[in-house]
Amino acid sequence: MLKALGIDASNDAAIDESIREILDARHERLVPPTILHTTGEDSQVSVNTGILEIPVASITLESGAEYEGVIET
């Protein structure tokens, strides 16, 4: 099944390399590709930045409107 997903798990070294590639791909994204928020509940989003970078964020709602609430960092 993993091979069908493009993940090499043929030996221990391949498994370690596959895990490293997956983690690297996750950390290359600034934010996850999809974020689900339930109205009325608090949400947290991990933002991957460089160690000295200060993240700046805005939120565009499905309607196209900009979120006007507080974004805490």
Structure overview:
It contains 1 helix and no strands. The protein is mostly helical and 73 residues long. This is CAZy families GH77 protein. It comes from uncultured Bifidobacterium sp.
Order of helices and strands: H
Number of helices: 1
Question: What proportion of the residues form beta strands (DSSP E)?
Answer: under 5%
Mean pLDDT: 83
Radius of gyration: 17 Å
Structural class: mainly alpha
Alpha-carbon distance between the termini?
A: 39 Å
Largest sheet: none
Shape: elongated
Question: In percent, how helical is the residue content?
Answer: 10-25%
Total beta strand runs:
0
| Low-confidence regions | none
Secondary structure elements and pairings:
Blueprint: H1 12-28
Protein name: CAZy families GH77 protein
Entry keywords:
mainly alpha; elongated; 73 residues
Short description:
The protein has one helix at 12-28. It is mainly alpha-helical and 73 residues long. The chain is elongated.
